[in-house]
């Protein structure tokens, strides 16, 4: 079980904290609004009303025992930055921070935090991809324009072998795994015959995956 501290429980911070708690982690939520803390008190391991611009308050929380501290104060940039500076001074290593504006991002970069999060932009990109490639249920970026994608096989793929499906993108797109009902078939042979409803996990570069799109819809 990991331990996380989420500072600022607006829409993003609250969802993050509740989700981490649901996943079985030890989560402390901190916010300066009593109403907000009352809402999460029963769902998190600890919930605390505090103003995180006060270094003394942060010190008392012993945040160095946590695996990560997330600062999810968006609107009040000054509070977010002061909190980050205090966390840095307290020697906290793994600090993730939500940024709302370009200036906010720029300053966070110079403060050398572990990760800067842009929830709206990141969700915008995911939503655009979901609209543009509706057949892709999930994807993971590998960098260098390479992706791992999860694609449920449509009816017209029934009876095709993997070799048929991937013939145009041989050695560019690889099938890592097929899931059929509850069973997993890792590194399936190219003669594996696809059934409608199989879930294919494919890896490859974006142009090659895009070439496959018409066969997957
Ligand atoms: P979102 O866009 O994700 O809803 P907000 O910036 O609106 O994010 O919400 C941030 C949360 O951080 C709010 O619940 C607010 O009460 C809390 N917050 C703002 N300033 C402080 C502070 N100095 N100390 C503790 N919590 C704060």
Can you offer a commentary on this structure?
- The protein is α/β, with parallel strands linked by helices and 217 residues long.
- The chain has 2 domains: 3-119, Rossmann fold; 129-216, Alpha-Beta Plaits (2-Layer Sandwich).
- 35% of the residues lie in helices and 27% in strands.
- It has 8 helices and 11 strands.
- It has helices at residues 11-22, 34-40, 55-60, 77-89, 102-110, 119-132, 162-165, 206-216; strands at 3-7, 26-31, 46-49, 68-71, 95-98, 115-117, 138-143, 146-152, 173-180, 183-186, 199-205.
- The protein has a 6-stranded parallel β-sheet with strand order 3-2-1-4-5-6, sandwiched between helices. A 5-stranded antiparallel β-sheet has the order 7-8-11-9-10, covered by helices on one side.
- Strand 4, helix 4 and strand 5 (95-98) form a beta-alpha-beta unit.
- It is elongated and about 65 Å long.
- The relative contact order is 0.10.
- The mean pLDDT is 94.
- The protein binds adenosine-5'-diphosphate.
- Adenosine-5'-diphosphate (ADP) binds next to helix 1.
- Adenosine-5'-diphosphate binds at residues 8-13, 31-33, 36, 51-53, 72-76, 79.
- GO terms for molecular function: monoatomic cation transmembrane transporter activity.
- Residues 137-217 form the RCK C-terminal domain.
- This is TrkA family potassium uptake protein.
């Amino acid at each position: 079980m990991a331990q996380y501290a989420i500072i600022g429980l607006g829409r993003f911070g609250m969802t993050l904290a509740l989700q981490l708690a649901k996943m079985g982690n030890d989560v402390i939520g901190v916010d300066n609004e009593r109403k907000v803390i009352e809402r999460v008190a029963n769902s998190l391991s600890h919930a605390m009303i505090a103003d995180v611009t006060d270094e003394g308050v942060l010190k008392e929380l012993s945040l160095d025992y946590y695996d990560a501290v997330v600062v999810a104060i968006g609107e009040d940039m000054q509070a977010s930055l002061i909190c980050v500076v205090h966390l840095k001074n307290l020697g906290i290593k793994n600090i993730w921070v939500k940024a709302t504006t370009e200036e906010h991002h720029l300053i966070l970069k110079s403060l050398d935090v572990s990760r800067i999060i842009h929830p709206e932009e990141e969700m915008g990109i995911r939503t655009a991809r979901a609209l543009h490639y509706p057949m892709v249920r999930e994807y993971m970026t590998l960098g260098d324009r390479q992706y791992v994608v999860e694609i449920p096989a449509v009816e017209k793929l029934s009876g095709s072998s993997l070799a048929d499906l991937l013939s145009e993108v041989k050695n560019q797109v690889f099938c890592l795994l097929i899931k059929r009902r509850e069973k997993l078939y890792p590194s399936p042979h190219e003669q594996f015959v696809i059934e409608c409803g199989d879930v294919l996990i494919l890896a490859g570069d974006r142009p090659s995956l895009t070439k496959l799109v018409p066969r997957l819809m």
